[in-house]
Structures are given as structure tokens and as C-alpha cells.
Write a structure and sequence with these properties.
One of its GO terms (cellular component) is peroxisome. With 148 residues, the protein is α/β, with parallel strands linked by helices. The protein has four helices and five strands. It has a single domain, classed as Rossmann fold, CATH 3.40.50. A five-stranded parallel sheet has the order 3-2-1-4-5, covered by helices on one side. Helix 3 packs parallel to helix 4. The chain starts with a helix and ends in an 18-residue tail after the last strand.
Length: 148
């Protein structure tokens, strides 16, 4: 469970949808609901803000969800990471500790890792990380013709 000081505090979710895609069989809204419910199960009862990053061309969230969509076409990794870093810093400035920061992403820029670590260790933010499941390792099949 979340410590009491974080239970009613702000929760900021920063979701890199190009690295941590919506699971098969779920809509974007259903996946977000699962993410938020996973924190509610831990005891969070405070306000939730959500920012998403990646190719938002076919992404759909209900308007009442208040999701901030940040569109970055494939190949704009640096711009996407920079925007995510800027948004985390701005969010932290607007939501002092105790607050909970959730990063939903695969590989993140070293600068973002440093900022998140600083918020956790120096500023007493609660930090939750969600990573995509590991990719299956490729299997090598070697076919040996008969008689060899």
C-alpha cells in the first residue's frame, strides 16, 4: 500500500505510448483505466493527471479523462524525450511533495532518469515505474540437410 502521505496526493502519469504500447485486446482508455486502478488498489485517492507521448494518430481517450496528448511521429525520439522531461519538471514544480510520479515507458533518456532520481531522493516524491514486458528472445533455427 501507499504510505498515508501519498494516498491523497497528486499522481502524475507520464506514458510513452511508443515504447510501452497499449496491450493487445485493450483500448487506450481501458489500458489507462487499468493503470489508474492499479494505483487505486494501493490506496491512492487523490487527483490524477495523465500525459501521453508518441504517435497519437489513432489514439482515443474520452475527453473527460483529461489526457494530454503529445504527438511525436516515429523517428522523433529526442524531441519526445525532451518534451517528457520538460513536462515532468513542470509537473513537479506545480505539485510539490508529497506527490506520486509514474513513468510508463521502456528506455528513457538519462536526463529523465536523473531528474526522477532527484525527485525521489532529494524531494521525497513517490516514484512508480511501469516497463513493457520483455520481448521474447529470437529463436535461431538451423536446418541441416539430410546426409550432412
Amino acid at each position: 500500500p501507499l504510505p498515508d502521505i501519498y494516498a491523497t496526493a497528486e499522481l502524475g502519469i507520464f506514458w510513452d505510448m511508443s515504447q510501452c504500447a497499449t496491450p493487445d485486446g485493450f483500448s487506450d482508455a481501458e489500458a489507462l483505466e487499468k493503470i489508474i486502478n492499479s494505483v487505486r488498489v494501493l490506496g491512492h485517492r487523490g487527483h490524477v493527471s495523465v500525459s501521453t507521448y508518441g504517435d497519437m494518430t489513432d489514439r482515443h481517450f474520452p475527453s473527460e479523462a483529461g489526457v494530454k496528448l503529445n504527438h511525436f511521429p516515429a523517428g522523433e525520439q529526442f524531441a519526445k524525450e525532451t518534451k517528457m522531461l520538460e513536462d515532468v519538471v513542470a509537473w513537479a514544480g506545480e505539485n510539490p511533495s508529497p506527490s506520486t510520479l509514474m513513468i510508463v515507458a521502456g528506455d528513457v533518456a538519462e536526463e529523465l532518469v536523473d531528474v526522477v532520481q532527484l525527485l525521489k531522493t532529494q524531494k521525497n516524491y513517490n516514484v512508480l515505474n511501469i516497463h513493457p514486458p520483455p520481448r521474447p528472445r529470437p529463436t535461431m533455427v538451423v536446418l541441416i540437410p539430410p546426409g550432412n
